[in-house]
């Protein structure tokens, strides 16, 4: 893959106003066959730093569905009514978006770690029933691994759900 994205022309406004000419941002993308073999792994190292930069430089936040955040970040009925009435935001409005951004960033960090599942595999342990060295096997924390995967999947779900809100 080779991607080159130029900056937005800073003279665009005047050229458009004076001559009706509207130059566009220059974008060049070349995709090789192997880039789509595991596209989720190909895109993760590109998306992750963009999410981190957006979180660090953002100047606003979209409206976040309360069902997408933990209970302690959800607005009260009073605040929901105020927002629907005149757009007044509650004290946790921006915290909700930060939480969503953190979950997306965490999910992509994990995707960039090819070996995150190793966190849930342990050393060989002894079979206590038959004594030392009898029937030793490698254990797997299935519940921990499933919870980790579920959180990753939720981060990717949030990325898809709020994709059009990834702006500054």
* Number of spatially distinct domains: 2
How does the major sheet shape up? 2 strands, antiparallel
- The separation of the N and C termini measures 26 Å
How big is the Rg? 23 Å
Runs in which pLDDT lies below 50 for 5 or more consecutive residues are: none
Could you describe the 3D structure shown?
The chain is mostly helical. It has two domains: 30 residues, no CATH class; 128 residues, no CATH class. The strands form two sheets. A two-stranded antiparallel sheet has the order 1-2.
Which helices and strands, and how do they pair?
Elements: E1 2-5, H1 12-19, E2 27-30, H2 39-57, H3 77-86, H4 93-112, E3 121-125, E4 137-140, H5 142-161
Antiparallel strand pairs: 1-2, 3-4
Helix pairs in contact: 2-4, 4-5
């Amino acid at each position: 893959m080779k991607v080159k994205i130029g900056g937005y022309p800073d003279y665009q406004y005047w050229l458009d106003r004076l001559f009706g000419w509207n130059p566009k941002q220059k974008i060049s993308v070349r995709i090789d066959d192997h880039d789509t073999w595991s596209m989720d792994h190909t895109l993760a190292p590109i998306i992750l730093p963009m999410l981190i930069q957006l979180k660090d430089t953002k100047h606003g936040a979209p409206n976040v569905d309360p069902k997408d955040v933990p209970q302690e970040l959800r607005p009260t009925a009073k605040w929901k009514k105020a927002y629907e009435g005149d757009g007044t935001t509650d004290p946790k409005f921006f915290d909700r978006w930060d939480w969503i951004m953190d979950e997306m960033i965490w999910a992509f960090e994990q995707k960039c770690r090819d070996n995150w599942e190793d966190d849930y595999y342990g050393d060989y342990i002894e079979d206590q029933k038959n004594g030392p060295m009898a029937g030793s096997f490698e254990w797997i924390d299935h519940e921990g691994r499933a919870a980790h995967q579920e959180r990753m999947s939720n981060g990717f779900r949030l990325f898809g759900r709020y994709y059009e809100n990834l702006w500054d």
